[in-house]
Please model this.
Amino acid sequence: MIKKVLTIAGSDSSGGAGIQADLKTFEEYGTFGFSALTSIVTMDPDEGWSHLVTPIEPDLVEKQLKTIFAGGALDAMKTGMLGTIEAIEITRTYIDKFAMDNIVIDPVMACKGTSELLQPENVAAMTRLLLPKATVTTPNLVEAGILSGMGDLTSIDQMKEAAKKILDLGPKNVVIKGGHRLKTDKAVDLFYDGTDFTIFESELFSTDYNHGAGCTFAAAVTAGLAKGYSVVEAVALAKKFVAAAIKNGQKINPFLGHVWHGAYNHASDRMTEN
Model:
């Protein structure tokens, strides 16, 4: 049977990140995607593409999850922007009720293109309630700096120290996404399983058409876990999937460009059932 995968996240009205990125990625992996919206992100072209995050009422988040879990536990799930403390609490309730495995917590703390972080109490609730249930968490450098309490991370050694501190918060595995902020000539991500560090390197593409890369990476890891890959195997394939998506990024409007979620499969036939 086709693997069933859930994303609990925000909707990106521009189509590149959040729920939209997740569902496109799930489809490319040959899995069946479910989605529960926690917020809607809109951008105003008349105001320099300024972002507005509108949370979904918690009771509607709960109703979505009740619908989704009508058939029982799913094969994997991920979280992204969760919007409210109540949404975080509801998410944890359903994780426990259905004894969910293969959980990817993408600790989204801000929209790309805005410096506004989520409320500190939301981050605290996510850290307390969701990270201990995570099979893997996938922070970027900024998020890893916040979760670890280390602030700006500028080197692989600092990433390693941050990964240790984040693992102490409860997740079984940590991936820190280096991206362009690391100031290297490679795209470097760090994986830590509590014992060993694995560094993933790929070509660093000089492009602004990378909107949605982080969400896509986490969604790819989630779909990989659903299909039976080990965590490190799922991360390795997700790295390749996102590299192809960034390399083939598309200009969407005058303000930004998105990664192309179909790039990996269009370029190869390596996405096989495990």
User: Anything to note?
Assistant: The longest strand covers residues 32-44. The chain is about 35% helix and 25% strand. The two ends are 12 Å apart (CA to CA). The chain has a mean pLDDT of 92.
